[in-house]
Write a structure and sequence with these properties.
mainly alpha, globular, transmembrane helix, transmembrane, membrane
Length: 78
């Protein structure tokens, strides 16, 4: 049985990021340039989070994010 993109996205959203020590270590060591406003930081964090998830949590995770989905996610964060 193959996992759909929607299922993988749901798993990504439900991942316990607060208790993922390796992810927390990455976030705590991030240093953003002074010109990064909050939306730009959120966009960067989302991209980095997806990369981390794909490489470290679920090797089968693939993420083809449309610009509209990314924009919607950033807007919903606020």
């Amino acid at each position: 049985m193959s996992t759909s993109q929607a299922d993988l996205e749901k798993e990504f959203q439900q991942h316990n990021w607060n208790e993922d020590k390796e992810w927390q270590n990455i976030v705590s060591n991030m240093d953003f340039p002074p010109n990064y406003d909050e939306p730009k930081k959120e966009e960067f964090l989302l991209k980095r989070k997806r990369k981390y998830y794909r490489e470290k949590v679920v090797s089968g995770f693939f993420s083809i994010i449309s610009v509209s989905f990314l924009s919607q996610t950033c807007v919903e964060a606020y």
